[in-house]
Amino acid sequence: MGEGSRAPDPEALTQNRSDPLSLAFFEARAAMERSEVPVGAVIVREGAIVASAGNRTLRDRDPTAHAELLAIRAACRTLDTERLTGCDLYVTLEPCAMCAAAISFARLRRLYWAAGDPKGGAVEHGPRFFAQPTCHHRPELYGGIRESEAAEMLRAFFATRR
After folding, report:
1. What is the rounded CA–CA span in Å between residue 66 and residue 69?
2. Distance of alpha carbon 33 from alpha carbon 36, whole angstroms
3. Strand extents, DSSP E, 1-109
4. What pLDDT shows up at residue 122?
5. Which of 27, 36, 68, 94 is catalytic?
6. Is 162 exposed, middle or buried (0-12, 13-18, 19+ CB in 10 A)?
7. Mean pLDDT along residues 136-147
8. What is the pLDDT of residue 17?
């Protein structure tokens, strides 16, 4: 799929076609196998998966290579547009401020996430980006889906780093 992302594994796509969050978890596990923080993101339009990615900040030597941004970039290329109107984003961790801004600028319709992030999140925590009067576009927000599964993956990852 291009810069910083790849076409989803065909087997993962087949198993997760009706559950984009499961594919996001697949991407998060793949990121963890690369020693990246285990975050995965998937963009869906009209029930079809448009893009998926896992964190790649270490591999790409790029602090902006968060799963959400990589998936947004890939979806824009795939759909040949700078706006992802009518698309939904599924991610395993509450987006940070940088990713929340990109979600707003991309005009994503809905945002679904698993674990909240009290330290770095910007949707329910921290700056609450979408609640700010200067926010250009506010997607529909749905958090806490499979939260314990995502939180456990993150805990396990960081336990190996300490």
Report:
1. 5
2. 7
3. 40-45, 48-54, 87-93
4. 98
5. 68
6. exposed
7. 97
8. 54
- Angstrom distance (rounded) from CA 7 to CA 129: 30
Q: What are the tokens at 55?
A: 């964190």
**Apex CA 51: angle with CA 50 and CA 53, to 5°?**
165
36 flagged as catalytic: no
- Supply the pTM of this predicted model: 0.89
Residues with Cβ within 8 Å of 32's Cβ and at least 6 positions away in sequence, in order, are: 38, 153, 157
C-alpha span between 17 and 19 (Å, rounded): 6
For 54-69, what is the mean pLDDT? Answer: 98
Integer CA distances (angstroms), 86 to 33, 83, 120, in order:
32, 9, 27
Cβ contact 124:114 at 8 Å = no
CA neighbor of 23 nearest in space, from 11, 34, 35, 36: 11
Residue 12 has pLDDT above 80, yes or no: no
Q: pLDDT for 112-125, tens place per residue? A: 999 999 999 999 99
